[in-house]
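tool_call: predict_structure(chain=1)
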Amino acid sequence: MPKSRHRKKPSRRRSGGGPDMYAALIRQVAYLPLRECRINDDWKEGRMASISFARDRPDGRVAIAAFCVDLGCLGVKSAFANPAMSVAEYESGLVRNQPTCQIRCDSAFAVKLIQGAHDYARQLGFSPDPGYRYAREIFGDIDPACWPETIEYGEDGKPFYVNGPHDDVETIMNHLTRKLGPDGFHYLFLFGAAQEFDLLNDEDEDQEGTPFVDLRQFG
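tool_result:
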């Protein structure tokens, strides 16, 4: 899967080889037979979903798309697609060699989860990874309405931000605070971000000055 990251809104370029061309390529293979759809087995606990779709090509290869989705706040953090990948490369890169176990899931559920996370993040003012513009074409005629169950976004009725290693944490935190107020969201800091923002009180530091608690919540 691609590395998780949250990017600023990309500039709109109309040159050849851009998102429009990739979208057209993926759209051409979006109605091939669906080979499988997979998701990490711990997506509920971590509120972060790594989802892949694979469609069988007549030539023995597969068309694939992969998404890293934050259900807590940021939506689609990364996305990419490839209209022609070998089965061996797909199974090695997107099925076996992942940090957590990738299990098969219902494709309607997967599309509903991705689109719902995208819409939730949009309401908060966050844009998806630029790759989402073309990778989503892999959905083809999959109907998310076929999955009747509700999917929860955020945590306990509020957005829940957990920083990733490639996030612009300061920008995201400032944006959430301006939009929702200091009591309007939850957050969990990893990767040393709590120390960077000096959000811990002096009494929360050990004798060497290193925070021993990296979890804080608004509200």
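agent: The chain has a mean pLDDT of 84. Proceeding to next step.
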